[in-house]
Amino acid sequence: MSNTAEAIDGSALVGRAGGPARPARRPRPTQPLIGIILPAIIIALWQVAASLAWIDRVFLPAPLTVVTAFWKMLTKQNLALDFLASVKIVGQAFLYGSIAAVGLGIAAGLSRKVEQFFGPTFDTIRHIPGIAWLPLIVLWLGIGAPAKVLVIAKSVFFPVFLNTLQGIRNVEKNYIELASVLTLTRWQLVRKVVLPAAVPSIMVSLRYAAGLAWALVVVAEGLSGLEGLGFLIFRAQGLLLTDQLVVCMVIIGLVGFAIDRSMYLLQRRVLRWKQGYDG
Amino acid sequence: MATPGHLEVRNVSKTYAVAGRPPVRVLSRVSLDVQPGAFVSLVGPSGCGKSTLLRLIIGLDREHGGDILIGGQPIEGPALSRGIVFQDHRLLPWLTLEDNIALALENARWAAADKAAAVRDHIALVGLAGFEKAYPHQLSGGMAQRAAIARGIVGRPEILLLDEPLGALDALTRVRLQAELQRIWRLERITMILVTHDVDEAIYLSDQVVVLAGSPGRVATEIEIGLPRPRDRASVEFVALKQRILAAMGEDAAQRPAA
């Protein structure tokens, strides 16, 4: 039998056994418009509420006022710098926290000894919220970025660490057996089997941690420091600049949305081997 | 004298320790002799130790009584000279088809070009040319099992162990893959030992069918299949053999439809 004949034979087999092989990427029917309906309704309601003065203008500025405030903050004040300050803190904290977490998670996943060594300490530290660490760390490191980076990195660390550990421990026993039959060394087993098997679990936690880090920076900046979106939002509250306050809230929401979408796309890219994976 | 690839199973016994209970004996003094290049099937009721015996031969489980020798040498753990195909295809979902098959050559001491050629040839051999870059979830059950067979033989083992490899497939795919398996066996001249529940499958493929009885598992009888290949499942001789084997397995052969 020639190779060609076998290939045809192979595809004929697929055709019979449950439809042709699906292409690597199914084009997903996306309906971006439907997602815009609700925000449009909210903005419309907001406008109506402001126009009819349902709520005092001091407490609820009209949408257009907020847009104007945004422009003013961007051109006359240092909104861009504050924004960058927040992004930098989150970026650094996420990077340090997740690298440490994946590294130690893998080590603890592969070795019970490592897990037992860190376990009790980590499980205690984990239960002290990052924000509770902040006052002490600010005393040590000052009100600048390093204290916030440290506290947020801590909050990123734990979900990623625990998921990495679990991901590694949950590798199917059948795959370990296969590796044994194929005479893979321990290092080959880790590289070819254990780590790839843990990736889905790690990716989920990275996506979660990225969102968490962004939410926490606002809190951390609100509690200490003199720059960043979190600082602006609390300052605006104190000065009753509700238009600026809303500007900050919207930016925080949109950036959070963008972070989550990027992580989702990254996840899809990394996990393209996974069946029916849709996040 | 020891012949390379000659598998001898001598008086092999196996007991499993179960916490808080008397140990369970799964194999009792099983002896087998498989000549190089032969196709031997092990059939028997569930729990007669067929799969346990395969695990011992592949080297996943090394605690047993008696001797298992290949070419006169006792088995010391898994080796590339023995391949296995499991009931589940067990392809790694994060590797493409070709990477999955290449994984079996990871520790083969071949040149990279030879490995690549062997992977390509064996993908073609099992009829999957064109699917090299596909991920396992994109393959049908039959295709995945073909890939698993390719992975089992790509390293040119002396012996290929087949642990109910077609058991989970639909009837049509199964018959088709039986023919494929036979073609591959003739082409590659690898000793194959098949564990199956399917007596038809055993007769269709084998030189010899070993009937195990439980429990503990022991060899009830060995039946030579002398029919010329390819075999006709509906022929009188085939049906007669089937009835003999079913009778040896303790089934009531008379109640079974003769096809």
UniProtKB/TrEMBL annotation, chain A:
GO terms for biological process: alkanesulfonate transmembrane transport. Residues 83-260 form the ABC transmembrane type-1 domain. Residues 1-26 are annotated as: Disordered. It is found in: Cell membrane. The chain crosses the membrane at residues 32-52, 94-111, 131-153, 239-259. Probably part of an ABC transporter complex. Probably responsible for the translocation of the substrate across the membrane. PANTHER family: ALIPHATIC SULFONATES TRANSPORT PERMEASE PROTEIN SSUC-RELATED, ALKANE SULFONATE ABC TRANSPORTER-RELATED, MEMBRANE SUBUNIT. This is ABC transporter permease.
TrEMBL record, chain B:
It holds the Pfam family ABC_tran. Signal peptide: none annotated. PROSITE patterns: ABC_TRANSPORTER_1, ABC_TRANSPORTER_2. One of its GO terms (molecular function) is ATP hydrolysis activity. This is ABC transporter ATP-binding protein. It comes from the Bacteria. PANTHER family: ALIPHATIC SULFONATES IMPORT ATP-BINDING PROTEIN SSUB (PTHR42788:SF13), TAURINE IMPORT ATP-BINDING PROTEIN-RELATED (PTHR42788). Gene3D superfamilies: P-loop containing nucleotide triphosphate hydrolases. It comes from Chelatococcus reniformis. Belongs to the ABC transporter superfamily. Residues 7-239 form the ABC transporter domain. SMART domains: AAA (SM00382). InterPro entries: AAA+_ATPase, ABC_transporter-like_ATP-bd, ABC_transporter-like_CS, ABC_transporter_ATP-bind, P-loop_NTPase. Keywords: ATP-binding, Nucleotide-binding, Transport. CDD domains: ABC_NrtD_SsuB_transporters.
